[in-house]
UniProtKB/TrEMBL annotation:
DUF218 domain: residues covered: 55-173
Protein name: Vancomycin high temperature exclusion protein
CDD domains, per the entry: YdcF-like (cd06259)
InterPro entries to which the protein is assigned, alphabetical: Cell_Envelope_Assoc, DUF218, TAT_signal
Lineage, broadest ranks: Bacteria, Bacillati, Actinomycetota, Actinomycetes, Kitasatosporales
Length: 225
């Protein structure tokens, strides 16, 4: 079976229609990213000026040999800094534990305790399989109404927009990172992830796993420092 190669339009009108089609495709592709910027324009802060909030949510970012990846460690270090400064009272760590040999939340908990956050102040969400799932579960399972979200700068806008859509009043702290291969990959990935984020915000699907409500965050907040 021969595959016909696309041909360049022969007429000026055909070339004009093709140009308009390409331009329209580019605009549609950029709309979700534009929405993310507009939706989060006044919601990004630093560890120094983020509003005092009871709960911080830290999103998983992979493990290396059972330990948080450097990117995840930077997120956790920012959460520990906020706790030590008295700007948050509890940390919800949300990540992937779909396999017995891969446990992001417990690795995140261990890192936080090593950096001065008491274990009783840390709550694990073991079904945070993607950003939307983590935001929905923070609201519907753990009862979080307001939170500081912590992630890398290339991901934080999507996290804030999705948590806002899920009903969590959110501010984001974007942790700076070295502009290495991982950073460029993450930034490129966000261009495509923005489209899914827009669909999630509009249609609001249930997370992959929901389950019963958990009192972990309330207990963490009730525990003394």
């Amino acid at each position: 079976m021969r595959i016909r190669r696309p041909r360049w339009p022969r007429t000026r009108a055909g070339r004009r229609r093709l140009l308009w089609a390409v331009m329209a495709g580019c605009v549609l592709a950029l709309l979700p990213a534009t929405w993310l910027r507009l939706a989060t324009a006044d919601r990004l802060r630093t560890t120094a000026d983020v509003p005092r909030t009871e709960v911080a949510v830290v999103f998983g970012a992979g493990l290396w040999h059972g330990k948080p990846s450097p990117y995840l460690a930077h997120r956790l270090d920012a959460a520990a800094k906020l706790y030590r400064a008295g700007r948050i009272e509890a940390v919800l760590v949300t990540g992937d534990n779909s396999r017995a040999d891969y446990d992001e939340p417990d690795a995140m908990r261990a890192h936080l305790t090593e950096h001065g956050v008491p274990d009783r102040r840390i709550v694990g969400d073991y079904a945070g399989f993607d950003t939307w799932d983590s935001c929905v579960r923070a609201k519907r399972i753990f009862g979080v109404d307001r939170a500081v979200l912590i992630s890398q700068d290339f991901h934080i806008r999507r996290a804030v927009a999705l948590c806002q859509a899920a009903g969590v009043d959110s501010y984001g702290v974007g942790v700076a990172a070295e502009h290495d291969v991982t950073w460029y990959y993450g930034g490129t990935r966000e261009l495509f992830a923005a489209g899914k984020a827009a669909l999630d915000a509009v249609f609001r699907p249930d997370p992959r796993f929901l389950g019963p409500r958990e009192p972990g965050v309330a207990r963490a907040l009730a525990a003394g420092r």
